[in-house]
Design goal:
By secondary structure, this protein is an alpha+beta fold. Helix content is 19%, strand content 28%. The longest helix is centred in the N-terminal third of the chain and has 20 residues.
Length: 824
């Protein structure tokens, strides 16, 4: 009996020890067990095999499945609590913050570590609470809250491997990774030019951004998000190469860690959470041209494009609301926040849009969220209280270059109805969407109808503004036949817009805010969860008399043609800018690249389908495509357009060659068929009229035939459109290791080229599903044109190097005509 009692007591002591070790309350009847000190360390395991280890001192680390430390809190001060009121000044959408006398303190001593009911870890350390919780199979949240009175900001000190790179941080124009930089997460105007000592209200800091997403992606294998919308900052390697500081305004902060085997896998997890775009309509994949100057000017532009044989699917004319002259010669601006047509310049907007539609053009307009006291069209919004207020209930105005402006309040139900009424009238005029501009200027002192403050909503405002438009169009056209593109955004930017554009670059070659910065903004945004972004051809802001030159126009048009979406802009000073009709050579150049853009429509559309479904950007940083290649980390002047095409824009004036890093494998010049071994740097020709584009060996690239002028369905039969290619599948086939490609509709192309260097001089025979078909020579390529009877087909061409096969699988309907171009 005594032995039995000793055994039961031992069990109770064991249960008590186990419970206390986990920081839990022991079961009833075991309180007599000896009290042990709480654990000093606890682990949180993810399904991926990653482990977060937390310590009672407030330190924590993230390890990969092999035990390598990927990220850790600082060894000295993992957390600091700050006091002091942040002062802010703002002008023309640019913001400056100042903390007069910062005071910092840190939690002292060890804390008590345990688990919560959901299996997460909880650490009570003085007047600070840490929580570590799993969020799905590949994510963990690290949250900290301070109870110390007066705490106004938290600073978390983190450590990374100094050999790793941190990419992303939103659409930043200075670089794709931010080593040695302090980076602010506050939506604002990028400014006309960037400088370390910017001119307030005109230029801005090098890292200032319209889309400053609080997310970074590490080459170590994790993504890190600062949750919430309050202002925050990153300090990337400022005090030491391994340092990563995160400061968040407020008395609580949360970090979300996503892990995965590749950066693409991490982006998939991240974008599934923050939202992805929806599939644009077919016509959005054709070039969009600007129009300006009134009904006759826009109509002349449309007729000119068709008569000159320049493909385009849409015309956007931002001055449908009118155009006003600014204080400087040659400077014009749009009326702030006008929602009605300028009947002086556009007496019959509906009639113009109907004529454009018949000619194969969709029509796009323009909106911004401002309300001007000087505009009689805004009077009703002011009278009904639809503008943002201050704490006293008065309309709050922001200084603007052409007078003070207020903001429409998207959280006000009446304001939303007011906006929807005007958008409905806009849609009835035959418009198919708009540029949804601005959203960066909301002052922190503003108060919203839902009770939130400008501090809380400033970063979210661009998404609220874009979301208002998206909600209207989804209700008006549930089939998705609309396009709204935006400039500014926060974490919901990708799902609120059809696509974004990279801001208002200067019309020059400047590394601070000119041509090269558009690509860096697109690539860093793509690494941050914005998969669809393009740019203005050829910039917007003109400082002084430096307009677009002919060389800049040539280079920018070529870059635009091999971007996800191709869209031109008139620029801030239209009269100073070189344009497509400036001379015959320019027109021919523009026409050539617009046709190349239209030809690549089925390829780009498939790439966008992948972006919509996975979050993988259409224009991809080379590290994202080749994560194991260290050279790819440093390349921010070239990109992959989808999985097969490498594009290297010429971003410096006067260049006739281009230094390029080709990834591992064999690559083929898109234009000439020249073959090069990859995994090395090389100098390639880049004359003024040529954009370096390379395709992976073995690729099968779907294209449209030359001659298609619009992607608008149902246009005038005299304007070749989608009907001209219906039932036809055309594919360019390149020799090399076999590859696969899936079209937007789900059709799969399985390509198996011969192992030889290229096509034999004269392929011997070709069959489709075992039936003989004809081979013809067109330029450098051998071409097969044949009818395919069913949903699937196999093409086989006999060459001296062996059989060349293309298998078409899972077509949504009968293939019809198959056109295969065998490239040498």
């Amino acid at each position: 009996m005594e032995q039995r009692r000793r055994g039961e007591a031992g069990v109770r002591r064991g249960l008590g020890v186990a419970a206390l070790a986990l920081g839990l309350t022991p079961p009833p009847g075991v309180l007599a067990a000896p009290r042990l000190p709480p654990p000093t360390e606890a682990r949180l395991a993810l399904e991926t095999g990653h482990v977060l280890v937390a310590s009672a001192t407030g330190r924590w680390e993230l390890h990969d499945p092999a035990g390598k430390r990927l990220l850790a809190s600082d060894a000295v001060a993992p957390l600091r609590l700050g006091r002091g009121r942040l002062e802010v000044s703002h002008l023309f959408g640019t913001f400056r913050f100042h903390l007069p006398a910062p005071a910092w303190a840190a939690p002292v001593g060890a804390g008590r570590l345990g688990r919560d009911a959901g299996g997460g870890l909880v650490l009570e350390q003085g007047d600070v609470t840490w929580r570590f919780a799993r969020v799905g199979p590949a994510s963990v949240r690290v949250a900290v809250a301070a109870r110390r009175p007066g705490t106004s900001r938290l600073a978390l000190g983190l450590r990374v491997d100094p050999r790793d790179r941190l990419f992303g941080f939103g659409a930043r124009t200075n670089a794709c990774h931010q080593a040695g930089r302090r980076v602010e997460n506050w939506v604002q105007e990028g400014g006309n030019g960037k400088a370390e000592q910017p001119l307030f209200g005109v230029s801005n800091h090098p890292t200032a951004s319209h889309v400053p997403l609080p997310f970074c992606l590490s080459t170590a294998g994790f993504g890190l998000t600062i949750e919430g919308a309050r202002r925050s900052t990153w300090e990337v390697g400022l005090d030491r190469p391994s340092g990563l500081g995160v400061t968040v305004e407020g008395d609580r902060a949360a970090l979300l860690l996503d892990v995965g085997p590749t950066p693409a896998a991490i982006l998939r997890v991240h974008t599934a959470r923050i939202g992805r775009p929806t599939m644009p309509p077919l016509w959005a994949f054709g070039p969009t041209e600007f129009g300006k100057g009134g009904t006759e000017a826009v109509w002349r532009k449309a007729r000119f494009l068709r008569e000159a044989g320049v493909p385009a699917s849409a015309i956007w004319y931002e001055d449908w609301v009118g155009l006003e002259h600014g204080p400087l010669p040659g400077l014009t601006h749009l009326p702030w926040g006008r929602w009605v047509p300028d009947l002086g310049h556009y007496p019959d907007v509906g009639g113009l849009n109907a004529r454009l539609e018949a000619l194969g053009f969709k029509s796009l307009g323009y909106f911004n969220p401002f309300l001007s006291q000087g505009d009689p069209h805004a009077r009703e919004a002011f009278e009904r209280g639809y503008a943002l207020k201050d704490a006293a209930g008065h309309t709050v105005f922001s200084p603007g270059p052409f007078g003070p402006v207020a903001h429409l309040d998207p959280t006000h139900a009446g304001a939303r109805r007011w906006a929807f009424e005007r958008l409905s009238a806009f849609e009835r005029l035959g418009f198919d969407g708009a540029m949804v501009d601005f959203g960066e200027w909301v002052p922190p002192e503003a108060r919203f109808a839902d009770g939130s403050s400008g501090w809380e909503q400033h970063n979210r405002y661009p998404d609220l503004w874009a979301g208002l438009h998206r909600t209207f169009w989804e209700q008006a056209r549930p089939d998705g036949d609309f396009v709204c593109y935006t400039r500014a955004g926060w974490t919901g930017a990708a799902r609120a817009a059809t696509y974004m554009w990279a801001g208002d670059q200067n019309t020059d070659w400047g590394e601070d805010d000119g041509f090269p910065t558009a690509l860096r903004a697109i690539l860093s945004a793509g690494l941050s969860g914005v998969p669809l972004m393009t740019h203005d051809i050829a910039g917007f802001a003109t400082l002084g008399d430096r307009g677009v030159t002919k060389e800049l126009y040539f280079r920018w048009v070529a870059f635009g043609a091999f971007s996800t979406f191709m869209r031109t802009h008139s620029g801030q000073k239209f009269s100073l800018n070189w344009r497509l009709d400036s001379d015959a050579e320019t027109l021919a150049h523009h026409r050539r690249y617009a046709r190349a853009h239209m030809a690549l429509l089925p390829y780009r559309r498939a790439v966008v389908r992948e972006a919509v479904e996975t979050g993988l950007p259409a224009m991809r940083h080379l590290w994202l495509a080749f994560p194991s290649a260290r050279e790819a980390r440093e390349v921010d002047d070239a990109y992959m357009l989808g999985p097969e095409l490498l594009v290297a824009p010429v971003l410096t004036p006067g260049a006739t060659t281009r230094r390029l890093w080709l990834p591992p494998g064999t690559w083929i010049d898109w234009w000439s068929g020249r073959r090069e071994a990859g995994g090395r740097w090389l100098e390639v020709p880049a004359p003024l009229d040529a954009l370096p584009v390379w395709v992976r060996a073995g690729a099968a690239v779907p294209v449209w035939p030359e001659g298609v002028m619009t992607a608008v369905p149902g246009a005038d039969p005299s304007v070749p459109g989608p009907a001209a290619v219906a039932g036809t599948l055309q594919v360019r086939l390149f020799p090399g290791p076999g590859r696969r490609f899936t079209l937007a509709e789900g059709t799969r192309l399985v390509h198996q080229p011969p192992t030889g260097a290229g096509v034999a001089a004269t392929p011997r025979a070709a069959t489709l599903d075992g039936r003989p078909v004809a081979l013809t020579r067109e330029g450098r390529a051998w071409v097969v044109r044949a009818r395919a009877a069913g949903r699937e087909a196999t093409l086989e061409v006999e060459t001296a190097a062996g059989p060349w096969r293309l298998r078409v699988e899972g077509a949504p309907g009968p293939i019809g005509t198959l056109v295969a171009r065998l490239e040498p």
